Amino acid sequence: MNKDLIDWVFSFFHLILLTGVLIYAVVSLFMGNTLRFGVIMACLVAYYFLVLHKNVMKEIRRKRKKGETGENKK
To answer: Are the CB atoms for 37 and 29 separated by under 8 Å?
Structure first.
């Protein structure tokens, strides 16, 4: 399989899972379970900074660099 396709599927799968966990946290909050909401949100924030932040910043720098070279300009 193509590496780009595998990366896309992996990213999409994680997006679906993270969205589901976020929805579960919000539902828990509206049901009155603020402790569960706080724990889930704290874990999501920790997951972002421990796993995703480095790659997100790398992608932002790559997009900015690509824009500076004039490849995206009309």
So the answer is: yes
Residue that is written with structure tokens 């919000």 in the block: 26
Would you say residue 74 lies in a domain?
Answer: no
24 CB contacts (<8 Å, ≥6 apart)? 40
pLDDT: which is higher, 35 or 52: 35
Cβ-count burial 29-43 (b if 16+ within 10 Å, e if not): eeeeeeeebeebbee
The total number of structural domains in the chain stands at 1
Element (H, E) at 41: helix 34-47
pTM to 2 decimal places: 0.65
